[in-house]
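Reopening this one. Same input as before:
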Amino acid sequence: MLVRQAANVLDLLEYFAQVKKPSSLAEISAALGWPRSSTFNLLGTLAHRGYVYEPRPRAGFYPTSRWAWLLQGIADPESVPEELCKAVDEVARSTGETVAIAAPSGTSAVLLYVVESPHVVRFTAQLGYQMPIHTTSCGRALLAQYSPAERAAVLKKVRYERFAERSLMDAKQVEAEIKLAVARGWHENIDGYAKDLVGVALPAELRDRCLSIVVGGPTSRMRQSIPQIAATLKRELNRHLAVP
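Same output, byte for byte:
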């Protein structure tokens, strides 16, 4: 279910993140395809609450630093562990591929930290990017940390779709793949979420958080080196998350 008012606020923030300059009501309305009256009402509400302002009279609107202050207050208690981010940085340098930290969000895995590959052809992902939890390597690395009852409850809510040729289409297939991955020592996904895309993931062994780390890239570059990539993941996770 999409709540339009909430989506409009997010669309507005993403718009400003892209243009990086004040914009008039007419410019915002045209860029986002909104009626001028709706645009006026939203900007007026945000201005009244201190979230947008006019840097100069009639020069357009721009977000205030109140957003950063608010998000900082939200993010600090549940920030991604610094050592895990360092592990991601090292894996990205070693493999040359896109590396990310994922967390569960219902039937999705959401990316909390991303280092993109420098290659032109790469797995492109941004902070907040969501993928189905059941048919991605990072998602199954999260599900593997659930109790059987917790995992069954999530898989019961999954909408099984044919995202790619090797997508998993029911809970039984997901459970079988998790069991295979545990025995193998890493979670992998080859053409299961998107064509010609490989993912290799491991759970991040933290006491109070359910997170995973994933390396993603094109099949042509990654498929033959999956065991080596998994070994790199294990090495850096052990090095950075080792208990003193």
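So the earlier flakiness isn't reproducible anymore. For the record, The chain has a mean pLDDT of 91.
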